[in-house]
Design goal:
CATH architecture of the largest domain in chain B: 3-Layer(aba) Sandwich
Number of domains of chain A: 1
Structural class of chain A: mainly alpha
CATH topology of the largest domain in chain B: Rossmann fold
Mean pLDDT of chain A: 87
Strand content of chain B: 35-45%
Helix content of chain B: 10-25%
Low-confidence stretches of chain A: 217-224
Mean pLDDT of chain B: 85
Largest sheet of chain B: 6 strands, mixed
Number of strands of chain A: 0
CATH architecture of chain A: Orthogonal Bundle
Radius of gyration of chain A: 19 Å
Strand content of chain A: under 5%
Oligomer: heterodimer
Distance between the termini of chain A: 41 Å
Order of helices and strands of chain B: EEEHEEEEHHHEHEHEEHHEEEEEEEEHEE
Number of domains of chain B: 2
Radius of gyration of chain B: 24 Å
CATH topology of chain A: MetI-like fold
């Protein structure tokens, strides 16, 4: 049983979710309220990870953050390190991979906020940015929580992208799903079963707790 | 021209009529202008353009010395900096905030406590909007708008979200509140009783155009044309011809019937005669007492429809005439379909408008 891998996965999920919250809220706001005609292109880009094979996404991320890419060189100058096969590189990949799982629930939450409430806030002299934090975000809390949970759970279970970008370095990039794969390759079915069961349990508990506590408000899909 | 709201705007919605509006509202004092017209006439759009929520295609909006919008100069002040006190039809109270937090939302300092008291919201201050009635929500909306210290109030159908008894109460309250806060206001409504109760002046809007602007009484009594007359609810509008002209009276002919009216008009002219249902009385006995009313018409009752305390009686006098009487008198006189009666119309109650 790979406690180290589990701990790494939980840390990765935590930071991915946090970063997605910071990036996803403004991105979803822009996607919901921008009058730009070409915003459907951005929507399509954000949704790409939903349909793209993780290996394809991982391959491009690997190229994009590699030591010869602008991002890689810039990162090397700043930190002296390298993004691929590091925890930070894994984080970049996870954020991109889980982007739609955060942005789409956020955006659908924002879109459901009554436009009249937003206009009322403007007419009361409150700026667009302040209206976002005082009206739009509080009224979208269920959708924001949904997006965060989906991001967390999705990152916890990711495999292909992690393998492409992070490889399999114990304690650095070996996440729990990769450790399961390793165990199976080594014919250690017992260890694989334990880890799988744990992952299944954690995922189920997180989702069940969320839906159970606030079943009606936090539903991802419409319920009766 | 300081201290006036001056609007002169044009806007075309996709698929809708072009909306044009030119209005002036004094900002000193607390005069209430009613923007009146049937649904879809563009009243709300005009209000939203003043608030800064819709952008006109061209024209200008000035508030005192400030330019809020100028199509030629490309000036467009955002709603945040207009302080226009816009209250939408459903009040748009923030559901996640208490009454107190709603009122304080855009407030500048001291105002909140006083407004909660003035609008009798102290006992409700810690409640959430879902626990309030429509009438209470309206008070919250007004208090919240006033807390932001606006320069005027823009109320879109302020009473339409209320049920009938609450509407009656709030109509009187709203008038007092508006007078009490000394705030100029533009009130959109399609209800003519609301317009009469709330407005000092009235602007009639039909199909996106302002057709008549003036004091409420004068517009209701003297509609400028047939469309305005129909909009303000003059029930009977008939094509007529001026037959002869006396000193101050003219005689008109509607269908076969001749009526005397106090108005101008050249003999032979085609006109429209507008007769309010309230000013038509019904008598049983045609050869009865002498009456000051000039016009006595033999009529047959087409239908009697009761509307609450009133009854609407459709009459056939050769042309269709509608009368409104109390239900009590309709019952006492036993007004029934098909019976013959006399319709009495005072000469002063007939308004002649030119036929377009």
């Amino acid at each position: 049983m790979e406690w180290q891998a589990l701990w790494l996965s939980l840390r990765l999920s935590f930071w991915t979710t946090l970063i997605l919250l910071a990036i996803g809220l403004p991105a979803a706001h822009w996607l919901t309220f921008s009058p730009r005609r070409w915003k459907f292109l951005v929507e399509a880009v954000v949704a790409l990870p939903l349909v793209l094979p993780p290996t394809v996404l991982g391959f491009y991320i690997l190229l994009a953050i590699g030591p010869h890419s602008p991002v890689g060189r810039w990162y090397a100058v700043l930190t002296g390190g390298m993004l691929p096969f590091s925890f930070q590189g894994l984080l970049v990949a996870s954020v991109l991979y889980s982007l739609p799982f955060a942005v789409q629930p956020f955006a659908s939450g924002f879109a459901a906020v009554d436009r009249k409430l937003i206009e009322a806030s403007w007419c009361l002299g409150i700026s667009r940015a302040a209206t976002f934090f005082r009206v739009i975000v509080p009224l979208s809390v269920p959708s924001i929580v949904t997006g965060m949970i989906l991001s967390f759970a999705h990152t916890l279970g990711e495999f292909g992208v992690v393998l492409m970008v992070g490889g399999n370095l114990a304690g650095i990039t070996r996440t729990v799903s990769i450790s399961i794969y390793d165990d199976v390759q080594a014919l250690d079915y017992r260890a694989a079963m334990h880890t799988s069961l744990l992952l299944l349990g954690i995922s189920f508990l997180v989702l069940a707790a969320t839906y159970g506590l606030r079943r009606r408000v936090w539903a991802v899909w419409p319920m009766n | 021209m300081a201290d006036e709201l001056i609007i002169d705007v044009r806007k075309r919605h996709a698929g809708g009529p072009e909306i044009t509006a030119a209005l002036r509202l004094p900002l000193s004092g607390h005069s209430v202008m009613v923007l009146f017209g049937p649904s879809g006439a563009g009243k709300t759009t005009v209000l939203r353009m003043i608030a800064g929520l819709d952008t006109p295609d061209s024209g200008s909006i000035r508030c005192g010395d400030d330019v809020w919008y100028d199509g030629d100069c490309g000036i467009r002040v955002p709603p945040q900096r207009r302080r226009a006190g816009y209250v939408s039809q459903d009040y748009a109270i923030f559901p996640h905030l208490t009454v107190r937090a709603n009122t304080a939302y855009g407030a500048h300092g001291w105002a909140v406590a006083g407004l909660l008291t003035r609008f009798e919201l102290n006992e409700l201050a810690d409640r959430y909007p879902r626990q309030l009635s429509a009438g209470q929500l309206q008070r919250v909306a007004l208090a919240r708008a006033l807390a932001a210290q606006p320069r005027l109030l823009l109320l879109d159908e302020p009473l339409s979200a209320l049920d009938a008894p609450a509407r009656l109460r709030m109509r009187a309250d709203l008038r007092q509140l508006l007078a009490g806060v000394q705030m100029p206001a533009i009130v959109v409504t399609h209800d003519r009783i609301e317009a009469m109760a709330l407005g000092d002046s009235i602007a009639i809007m039909i199909d996106g155009k302002l057709r008549q602007v003036g004091a409420v009484e004068s517009v209701f009594d003297c509609p400028a044309d047939a469309d305005v007359a129909a909009a303000v609810g003059v029930e009977t509008i008939c094509p007529a011809r001026v037959v002869s002209r006396g000193a101050d009276l003219i005689t008109i002919e509607i269908a076969q019937a001749r009526l005397v009216a106090v108005d101008s008009g050249d003999p032979g002219a085609d006109v429209l005669a507008c007769i309010r249902a309230e000013s038509v009385t019904i008598e049983r006995n045609p050869a009865g007492n002498p009456s000051s009313a000039r016009n006595h018409l033999a009529a047959r009752i087409v239908s009697v429809i009761s509307e609450g305390p009133l009854a609407r009686v459709a009459l056939d006098c050769g042309f269709r005439l509608t009368a409104i009487v109390t239900r009590q008198s309709a019952e006492e006189m036993r007004l029934r379909e098909g019976e013959l009666v006399t319709a009495v119309v005072k000469a002063t109650s007939i308004r002649i408008v030119p036929r377009l």
